[in-house]
Amino acid sequence: xxxxxxxxxxxxxxxxxxxxxxxxxxxxxxxxxxxxxxxxxxxxxxxxxxxxxxxxxxxxxxxxxxxxxxxxxxxxxxxx
Length: 80
Hints:
Blueprint: H1 5-8, E1 19-21, E2 24-26, E3 31-32, H2 41-49, E4 54-55, H3 72-79
Parallel strand pairs: 3-4
Antiparallel strand pairs: 1-2
């Protein structure tokens, strides 16, 4: 099993990746895009727990219901 390199070199855990983009402060530049991994508050909070810097939501609501597949238009183009 590989050891976490931060336990070998403590200076690696002190690297500052924080950034400020358009006035939005983030602990790092790694964000989740608007996609299934960001469908709910619980999923986004879990992502923050794992170290993600942010998340993008295009739609807010309760519940969020996907009424059609984004790729649904391709099915007719391919088969027809």
